[in-house]
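Following up on my earlier thread - several people asked me to post the actual chain instead of describing it. Fair enough. Here it is, all 131 residues.
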Amino acid sequence: MSYIDGFVIAVPTANKDKFEEHAKLGDSVFMDLGALRIMECWGDDVSDGKVTDFRKAVQAKDDETVVFSWIEWPDKETRDKAMATMMDWMNNPEKTDPRMDPEKNPMPFDGTRLIYGGFAPLVELNSNTEA
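Reply from S.P.:
Thanks for posting it. Predicted structure:
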């Protein structure tokens, strides 16, 4: 069964193009490590909640947009192997894929406010209609 990594990030609205470039370059690494699909979604209709919401979760400022992203993996084993490779790169910078080098592909957002987690799908509905 597939496995999902989910992310919520506050990105300065002025950095939308930079974020898109950063994501395209960095996400290609995850694809090379076995990801099936990656979605980077720019906040378009993100409501303020009374108790909590996406903006509060990442402490988004007025000049920031919430980005909701996910990576779909074929299974948890593939994801765990990819994450082990990433951790190895972090611990051995000389091995780092250049696409993940912060000098060459800096994060255009405050990474300390990024929230993420791994999720095992519970319910999946698909529409496989043909035209």
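The chain has one domain: 11-63+75-119. That should answer part of your original question.
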